[in-house]
UniProtKB/TrEMBL annotation:
Stored SUPFAM superfamilies: Nucleotide-diphospho-sugar transferases
Recorded superkingdom: Bacteria
UniProt GO MF annotations: hexosyltransferase activity
InterPro entries given in the database record: Glyco_trans_2-like, Nucleotide-diphossugar_trans
Protein name from the UniProt record: Glycosyltransferase 2-like domain-containing protein
Gene3D superfamilies, A to Z: Spore Coat Polysaccharide Biosynthesis Protein SpsA, Chain A
All copies of domain Glycosyltransferase 2-like, residue ranges: 13-153
Length: 268
Protein backbone atom coordinates (compact mmCIF):
# COMPACT_ATOMS: atom_id res chain seq x y z
CA UNK A 1 0.00 0.00 0.00
CA UNK A 2 1.36 3.41 -0.92
CA UNK A 3 2.47 6.15 1.44
CA UNK A 4 -0.23 8.41 2.84
CA UNK A 5 -0.51 11.58 0.78
CA UNK A 6 -1.64 14.79 2.49
CA UNK A 7 -2.63 14.66 6.15
CA UNK A 8 -4.75 17.25 7.92
CA UNK A 9 -2.92 17.94 11.16
CA UNK A 10 -4.97 17.23 14.27
CA UNK A 11 -7.69 15.40 12.35
CA UNK A 12 -8.67 11.91 13.53
CA UNK A 13 -10.03 9.59 10.85
CA UNK A 14 -12.25 6.78 12.12
CA UNK A 15 -12.73 3.63 10.05
CA UNK A 16 -15.79 1.44 10.55
CA UNK A 17 -16.03 -1.65 8.37
CA UNK A 18 -19.44 -3.27 8.21
CA UNK A 19 -21.28 -6.23 6.76
CA UNK A 20 -25.06 -6.48 7.03
CA UNK A 21 -25.43 -5.19 10.60
CA UNK A 22 -27.17 -1.84 10.16
CA UNK A 23 -28.83 -1.79 13.59
CA UNK A 24 -25.55 -2.30 15.42
CA UNK A 25 -23.76 -0.03 12.96
CA UNK A 26 -26.08 2.87 13.77
CA UNK A 27 -25.21 2.56 17.48
CA UNK A 28 -21.51 2.40 16.67
CA UNK A 29 -21.62 5.46 14.44
CA UNK A 30 -23.52 7.43 17.07
CA UNK A 31 -20.94 6.56 19.74
CA UNK A 32 -18.26 7.91 17.39
CA UNK A 33 -20.16 11.06 16.43
CA UNK A 34 -20.90 11.73 20.13
CA UNK A 35 -17.20 12.02 20.99
CA UNK A 36 -16.22 15.07 23.05
CA UNK A 37 -13.31 15.49 20.62
CA UNK A 38 -14.96 16.88 17.50
CA UNK A 39 -12.17 17.08 14.91
CA UNK A 40 -13.17 13.71 13.47
CA UNK A 41 -14.02 12.31 10.07
CA UNK A 42 -15.76 8.92 9.78
CA UNK A 43 -15.26 6.56 6.87
CA UNK A 44 -17.76 3.69 6.73
CA UNK A 45 -16.73 0.87 4.41
CA UNK A 46 -18.89 -2.14 3.65
CA UNK A 47 -17.80 -5.54 2.40
CA UNK A 48 -20.02 -5.39 -0.66
CA UNK A 49 -22.43 -2.60 -1.55
CA UNK A 50 -25.23 -1.96 0.99
CA UNK A 51 -27.81 0.60 -0.08
CA UNK A 52 -29.29 0.99 3.42
CA UNK A 53 -25.88 1.81 4.88
CA UNK A 54 -25.20 4.32 2.12
CA UNK A 55 -28.59 5.95 2.72
CA UNK A 56 -28.00 6.22 6.48
CA UNK A 57 -24.53 7.72 5.99
CA UNK A 58 -25.86 10.22 3.44
CA UNK A 59 -28.60 11.28 5.87
CA UNK A 60 -25.95 12.04 8.50
CA UNK A 61 -23.77 13.82 5.95
CA UNK A 62 -26.74 15.98 4.89
CA UNK A 63 -27.14 17.36 8.42
CA UNK A 64 -23.50 18.34 8.69
CA UNK A 65 -21.55 15.35 9.96
CA UNK A 66 -18.15 14.65 8.42
CA UNK A 67 -18.87 11.11 7.30
CA UNK A 68 -18.54 9.20 4.04
CA UNK A 69 -19.39 5.79 2.63
CA UNK A 70 -17.40 3.46 0.41
CA UNK A 71 -17.45 -0.23 -0.39
CA UNK A 72 -15.44 -3.03 -1.94
CA UNK A 73 -16.53 -6.08 -3.82
CA UNK A 74 -17.66 -8.67 -1.28
CA UNK A 75 -14.68 -10.75 -0.12
CA UNK A 76 -15.69 -12.14 3.29
CA UNK A 77 -12.80 -10.73 5.31
CA UNK A 78 -12.23 -7.23 6.73
CA UNK A 79 -8.70 -6.41 5.56
CA UNK A 80 -9.71 -5.40 2.04
CA UNK A 81 -12.44 -2.87 3.00
CA UNK A 82 -10.25 -1.60 5.86
CA UNK A 83 -7.41 -0.87 3.46
CA UNK A 84 -9.76 0.73 0.95
CA UNK A 85 -11.18 2.95 3.70
CA UNK A 86 -7.62 3.91 4.68
CA UNK A 87 -7.08 5.26 1.18
CA UNK A 88 -10.05 7.62 1.76
CA UNK A 89 -8.75 9.01 5.07
CA UNK A 90 -7.32 12.51 5.48
CA UNK A 91 -6.37 12.48 9.15
CA UNK A 92 -3.05 12.65 10.92
CA UNK A 93 -4.40 9.93 13.20
CA UNK A 94 -6.49 6.85 12.52
CA UNK A 95 -8.83 5.06 14.92
CA UNK A 96 -10.59 1.77 14.24
CA UNK A 97 -13.95 0.52 15.43
CA UNK A 98 -15.85 -2.65 14.55
CA UNK A 99 -19.44 -2.13 13.42
CA UNK A 100 -20.93 -3.48 16.65
CA UNK A 101 -18.59 -2.00 19.27
CA UNK A 102 -19.05 1.22 21.24
CA UNK A 103 -16.89 3.99 22.71
CA UNK A 104 -17.01 6.17 25.80
CA UNK A 105 -17.45 9.81 24.81
CA UNK A 106 -13.95 10.89 25.91
CA UNK A 107 -12.04 8.00 24.30
CA UNK A 108 -10.58 9.91 21.36
CA UNK A 109 -9.91 13.02 23.46
CA UNK A 110 -7.79 11.02 25.91
CA UNK A 111 -5.86 9.25 23.17
CA UNK A 112 -5.31 12.44 21.19
CA UNK A 113 -3.98 14.24 24.25
CA UNK A 114 -1.59 11.39 24.99
CA UNK A 115 -0.22 11.06 21.46
CA UNK A 116 0.10 14.81 21.01
CA UNK A 117 2.06 15.06 24.26
CA UNK A 118 4.26 12.00 23.58
CA UNK A 119 5.65 12.11 20.02
CA UNK A 120 7.77 8.97 20.54
CA UNK A 121 4.57 6.95 20.88
CA UNK A 122 2.78 5.93 17.70
CA UNK A 123 -0.09 3.79 19.02
CA UNK A 124 -2.45 4.20 21.96
CA UNK A 125 -5.02 1.56 22.91
CA UNK A 126 -7.43 1.43 25.86
CA UNK A 127 -8.87 -1.08 28.23
CA UNK A 128 -12.25 -2.50 27.27
CA UNK A 129 -15.33 -4.05 28.76
CA UNK A 130 -17.63 -6.57 27.09
CA UNK A 131 -21.33 -6.16 26.35
CA UNK A 132 -23.99 -8.50 25.00
CA UNK A 133 -26.37 -8.01 22.08
CA UNK A 134 -28.58 -5.80 24.28
CA UNK A 135 -25.72 -3.54 25.43
CA UNK A 136 -25.71 -5.13 28.88
CA UNK A 137 -22.39 -5.98 30.56
CA UNK A 138 -21.42 -9.59 29.99
CA UNK A 139 -19.81 -11.87 32.56
CA UNK A 140 -16.39 -10.85 31.25
CA UNK A 141 -16.03 -7.17 31.99
CA UNK A 142 -12.83 -5.18 32.25
CA UNK A 143 -9.79 -7.01 30.95
CA UNK A 144 -8.27 -8.87 33.87
CA UNK A 145 -4.71 -8.21 32.79
CA UNK A 146 -2.95 -5.52 30.82
CA UNK A 147 0.81 -4.95 30.74
CA UNK A 148 2.06 -1.93 32.66
CA UNK A 149 5.30 -1.60 30.71
CA UNK A 150 7.27 -3.19 27.87
CA UNK A 151 4.21 -2.93 25.63
CA UNK A 152 6.24 -3.37 22.44
CA UNK A 153 7.81 -6.61 23.62
CA UNK A 154 4.77 -8.17 25.27
CA UNK A 155 2.69 -7.78 22.09
CA UNK A 156 4.75 -10.66 20.64
CA UNK A 157 3.73 -12.90 23.54
CA UNK A 158 0.01 -12.09 23.73
CA UNK A 159 -2.32 -9.82 21.81
CA UNK A 160 -3.50 -7.62 24.65
CA UNK A 161 -4.81 -4.97 22.22
CA UNK A 162 -8.52 -4.71 21.44
CA UNK A 163 -8.91 -3.70 17.80
CA UNK A 164 -11.70 -1.17 18.42
CA UNK A 165 -9.63 0.56 21.10
CA UNK A 166 -6.72 1.52 18.84
CA UNK A 167 -5.71 5.00 17.74
CA UNK A 168 -2.42 5.40 15.89
CA UNK A 169 -0.48 7.79 13.67
CA UNK A 170 -1.68 7.00 10.16
CA UNK A 171 1.66 7.43 8.40
CA UNK A 172 3.05 4.41 10.22
CA UNK A 173 0.10 2.27 9.14
CA UNK A 174 0.86 3.11 5.52
CA UNK A 175 4.57 2.51 6.02
CA UNK A 176 3.82 -0.91 7.51
CA UNK A 177 1.74 -1.88 4.48
CA UNK A 178 -1.60 -1.64 6.32
CA UNK A 179 -3.64 -4.81 6.89
CA UNK A 180 -2.56 -8.12 5.35
CA UNK A 181 -4.92 -8.53 2.41
CA UNK A 182 -5.15 -12.30 2.50
CA UNK A 183 -8.22 -14.34 3.53
CA UNK A 184 -5.99 -16.79 5.43
CA UNK A 185 -5.31 -13.94 7.90
CA UNK A 186 -9.00 -13.33 8.61
CA UNK A 187 -9.45 -12.45 12.32
CA UNK A 188 -5.68 -12.00 12.88
CA UNK A 189 -4.86 -9.28 10.35
CA UNK A 190 -5.02 -6.70 13.12
CA UNK A 191 -2.51 -8.58 15.28
CA UNK A 192 -0.25 -8.92 12.24
CA UNK A 193 -0.34 -5.12 11.85
CA UNK A 194 0.34 -4.48 15.56
CA UNK A 195 3.49 -6.60 15.32
CA UNK A 196 4.73 -4.55 12.37
CA UNK A 197 3.88 -1.26 14.06
CA UNK A 198 5.74 -2.31 17.21
CA UNK A 199 8.97 -1.86 15.25
CA UNK A 200 8.16 1.74 14.28
CA UNK A 201 7.54 3.39 17.65
CA UNK A 202 6.30 3.00 21.21
CA UNK A 203 2.90 1.64 22.29
CA UNK A 204 0.77 2.73 25.23
CA UNK A 205 -2.46 1.46 26.77
CA UNK A 206 -4.85 3.68 28.73
CA UNK A 207 -6.07 1.51 31.58
CA UNK A 208 -9.54 3.05 31.86
CA UNK A 209 -12.39 1.37 30.01
CA UNK A 210 -13.06 3.48 26.91
CA UNK A 211 -14.15 0.70 24.54
CA UNK A 212 -17.05 -1.75 24.67
CA UNK A 213 -16.52 -5.00 22.82
CA UNK A 214 -19.71 -6.79 21.84
CA UNK A 215 -19.78 -10.55 22.41
CA UNK A 216 -21.92 -12.70 20.12
CA UNK A 217 -22.88 -16.34 20.48
CA UNK A 218 -20.13 -18.23 18.65
CA UNK A 219 -18.35 -21.56 18.81
CA UNK A 220 -15.65 -20.50 21.24
CA UNK A 221 -13.77 -23.82 21.25
CA UNK A 222 -13.54 -23.87 17.49
CA UNK A 223 -12.39 -20.24 17.48
CA UNK A 224 -9.65 -20.96 20.00
CA UNK A 225 -8.36 -23.91 18.02
CA UNK A 226 -8.27 -22.01 14.75
CA UNK A 227 -6.89 -18.92 16.47
CA UNK A 228 -3.84 -20.73 17.78
CA UNK A 229 -3.05 -22.07 14.33
CA UNK A 230 -3.44 -18.62 12.83
CA UNK A 231 -0.97 -17.21 15.34
CA UNK A 232 1.65 -19.45 13.77
CA UNK A 233 0.68 -18.06 10.38
CA UNK A 234 1.11 -14.51 11.69
CA UNK A 235 4.50 -15.23 13.25
CA UNK A 236 5.85 -17.07 10.21
CA UNK A 237 4.94 -14.13 7.99
CA UNK A 238 5.84 -11.25 10.30
CA UNK A 239 9.11 -12.58 11.69
CA UNK A 240 10.59 -12.92 8.21
CA UNK A 241 10.52 -9.12 7.87
CA UNK A 242 10.93 -7.85 11.43
CA UNK A 243 14.02 -7.26 13.53
CA UNK A 244 13.03 -9.37 16.52
CA UNK A 245 15.48 -11.00 18.92
CA UNK A 246 15.84 -14.79 18.69
CA UNK A 247 14.81 -15.07 22.34
CA UNK A 248 11.55 -13.16 21.79
CA UNK A 249 10.77 -15.22 18.70
CA UNK A 250 11.37 -18.45 20.58
CA UNK A 251 9.17 -17.35 23.47
CA UNK A 252 6.38 -16.36 21.08
CA UNK A 253 6.40 -19.74 19.34
CA UNK A 254 6.72 -21.62 22.64
CA UNK A 255 3.60 -19.96 24.06
CA UNK A 256 1.55 -20.78 20.97
CA UNK A 257 2.65 -24.42 20.89
CA UNK A 258 1.89 -24.69 24.60
CA UNK A 259 -1.66 -23.41 23.94
CA UNK A 260 -2.11 -25.88 21.09
CA UNK A 261 -0.97 -28.80 23.28
CA UNK A 262 -3.22 -27.72 26.16
CA UNK A 263 -6.18 -27.44 23.81
CA UNK A 264 -5.62 -30.97 22.50
CA UNK A 265 -5.13 -32.43 25.97
CA UNK A 266 -8.15 -30.80 27.61
CA UNK A 267 -10.54 -31.08 24.67
CA UNK A 268 -10.28 -34.79 23.88
Amino acid sequence: MGTQRDEIKGLVSVIIVTYRRLNYLKETIQSVLNQSFNNIEVVVASDGYESDVEQYVNELKAIGYRISYCFTEHCGYPAKPRNFALSKCNGEYIAFCDDDDLWEKDKIAKQFQFLESNPAYILCATNRSTIDSNNKPSSERKLKWLPKRNFNQIIFLTNYITYSSVMTRIKFVFQAGAFKDDPKFRAVEDYHLWLKLSQAGKFNVIDSVETYYRVHATNISKSLSEGNKKLLLVFNDAFSALDVSPLLKSMAYLIVYFKIICYKVFNK
